[in-house]
Amino acid sequence: MRQRLKDVFQDLVRRACQNTLEINRESLAYVQEEGTQVMNPNRTLVRFLWMAVISLAFIGLAVAARRSIVLFMPGAPSARNNPAAELDKHFANHRALTLAHVLPAMLFMVLGPLQFIRSLRTEHPQVHRWSGRIFLTASAVVGITGLTMAFGKTIGGIDEKAAITLFGTFFLIALAKALWHALRREFTQHREWMIRGYAIGLAVATIRPIMGTFFAAALMKGHTPEPREFFGTAFWIGFTLQMIAAEIWVNYTRNVAAVQLANLSGELAVPRQGGVTYWKRPG
Questions:
Q1: Is residue 207, in this structure, part of any structural domain at all?
Q2: Structural domain total, the chain
Q3: Residue 179 lies in a domain
Q4: Integer CA distances (angstroms), 31 to 21, 64, 280, in order
Q5: 38, 149, 242, 282: which one has the fewest Cβ atoms less than 10 Å from its Cβ?
């Protein structure tokens, strides 16, 4: 009798395992079928975006490098008739704080694009993780020193203070959330918050051509450029444009990125209208 019950129990367990395996296979097949239907981002658009990001990163790196040179060797690259002479003088009055801001900013500009290279994430995950840690550390220093500078005397007055305080705070929050999701292996959300954080940081580079436009407009009218008149406006325009661009890209690529990153977190991701459905990978 006992042996018979044991045989019946084993038979039930075997059937249950077979049913579960069949369900798992169907689930995986369904996910693969659904995943192939996700539209990949337009390649031309992706190339254009990468060109824009690299260009802005280069501008940001050049600006930070020049600022460092001016502070380490006062007067070397700055002539008397240089329209940026007033800016150089302003930052020279806060030499230590400015250097603490611009030196890690160069790391931020260089390491930022590396965080979004898919082949680096998949083929060299350790490099991705360690460069990400350095990137987030540098970002924290950049954000904190930037906010500290905003609380002091600024060129653009209250407009610049408000812009830096608002977007600088969001910058730190975005990168903190990116770290939080990475630690929880929620890589889709990690990617989205990294995009937002890096976009805000790149706004510093976007602001430069905007300020250059204001400088050129003043010179064409025969006026001496007065940075305090347009500095705050340039900051608001640059930060806002970057935030809008980041949100558009996050929403445009959300479904395909979720499918690509799901394997890293041990989840299955199925694109749905209005979002993505996740569940733990069966088996």
A1: yes
A2: 1
A3: yes
A4: 15, 46, 12
A5: 282
